[in-house]
Design brief:
The chain starts with 14 loop residues before the first helix and ends in a 13-residue tail after the last helix. About 45% of the residues lie in helices and about 10% in strands. The radius of gyration is 22 Å and the shape is globular. Helix 1 packs antiparallel against helix 2 and helix 6 packs across helix 7. The longest helix is centred in the first third of the chain and has 18 residues. The N terminus is likely disordered. It is built from 16 helices and nine strands. It has four domains: about 90 residues, DNA polymerase, domain 1 (Orthogonal Bundle), CATH 1.10.150.110; about 50 residues, 5' to 3' exonuclease, C-terminal subdomain (DNA polymerase, domain 1); about 110 residues, 2-Layer Sandwich (Beta Polymerase, domain 2); about 70 residues, 2-Layer Sandwich (Beta Polymerase, domain 3), CATH 3.30.210.10. A hairpin with a 4-residue loop joins strand 8 and strand 9. The chain binds a DNA duplex (11 and 7 nucleotides) through helix 2, helix 7, helix 9, strand 5 and helix 15.
Length: about 325
DNA sequence: AATAGCCAGTT
DNA sequence: AACTGGC
């Protein structure tokens, strides 16, 4: 997933509240480094975004799950004054603004940003003059700072999908490739490209003989026409940069090699959305199953998960837990 | 009390 | 090997 904020829902009646809550959420993550406040603001924004009525008061908002006393008061302040003192203070805090800027570079998180600020680095230009203070990932993030903030039109993801699929199939037609993320959910634009790849011979136990250590490397080699940089490269996961043509921006590309028996759980998981996954996982629990990116396992009376259920398609996962099948386009929540 | 595991880099 | 930072 990318660093970019989720695009705001176009029929969100509470979009103005969501906007300030998301801004507070970013501040808590990047500047205060309080992950729990970050999650709390995000949850509040998300419940307001999916609320079908315009909220008229803090009191009304408080009835929603995830909105308590503090956020309720902020909604009242915003309704009464059109702004938030806390947010104004943040906007006037030069250091907070610098940290927020630096964390927009891929590879720079809250800790590194504070560290850089301590060393007197206050702008993207300062970063460009101090590349020696950055690791490989951060240098790539800086190099493509502007491009990585651009959304990718669906048509471009589709073209990249065609190129990637063609080159990998050319290596071996038995490969299966699925571009997941928001693209698979039918969105008109995406933040990055998230490809899952499997092969009939790619079995779980094979990790030992390391036969697929080379497999991912071969795939990356086959894609050298569009891959321009490697951020990281392990046995199962590639993170890097690709470009469709000289006329296109550079795009973030992740490729995962998944064993066959985990493929559909992985495709389901990486298609999201986050909220959909959470809902589906909790439904699975009600049906005494535990679901993650690797497997679906029944939970016995002892409470201990059993052996993974054998899965041959995404639909089967829904069937097993008696959850109505939802097409990827219906999972945008 | 609050999603989780992979990868890179450091100690 | 354990830990940190980022995704």
């Amino acid at each position: 997933m990318s660093k970019r904020k989720n695009p705001s829902d176009n029929n969100n009646l509470n979009a103005d509240f969501c906007e300030f809550l998301m801004e507070l959420s970013d501040y808590e993550k990047n500047v205060s480094r309080n992950i729990h406040k970050f999650n709390a603001y995000k949850k509040a924004a998300s419940v307001l975004a999916s609320h079908s009525k315009r909220i008229q008061s803090g009191e009304e908002a408080k009835k929603l799950n995830g909105i308590g006393e503090k956020i309720s008061k902020k909604i009242d302040e915003f309704l009464n004054t059109g702004k938030l003192k806390k947010l104004d203070d943040i906007h006037n805090d030069e250091n907070a603004q610098i940290i927020s800027l630096l964390t927009r570079v891929s590879g720079i998180g809250p800790v590194k940003a504070a560290d850089l600020l301590n060393m007197g680095i206050k702008s993207i230009e300062d970063l460009r003059n101090n590349k020696n203070k950055l690791n490989h990932h951060q240098i790539i993030g800086l190099k493509y700072f502007e491009d990585f903030e651009k959304m990718i039109p669906r048509s471009e993801v589709r073209e990249l999908e065609n190129v990637i699929t063609k080159e990998i199939k050319n290596l071996d037609p038995q490969f299966t490739i699925t571009i997941c993320g928001s693209y698979r959910r039918g969105r008109s634009e995406s933040g990055d490209i998230d490809a899952q790849v499997t092969h009939p011979t790619l079995k779980l136990g094979d990790n030992k003989n390391k036969c697929h250590e080379k497999l991912l490397k071969n795939i990356i080699m086959a894609l050298k026409g569009c891959i321009t940089d490697v951020i990281s490269m392990g046995e199962t996961k590639f993170m890097g940069v690709c470009r469709l043509s000289n006329n296109h921006p550079f795009r973030r590309l992740d490729i995962r090699l998944i064993p066959k028996e985990q493929y559909y759980c992985a495709v389901l998981y990486f298609t999201g959305s986050d909220v959909f996954n959470k809902n589906m996982r909790s439904h699975a629990l009600e049906k005494s199953f535990t679901l993650n990116e690797y497997s679906l396992r029944p939970i016995g009376v002892t409470g201990i998960p059993g052996e993974p259920v054998q899965i041959e398609s995404e639909e089967e996962i829904f069937d097993y837990i008696d959850y109505p099948y939802q097409k990827p386009e219906e999972r945008n929540m």
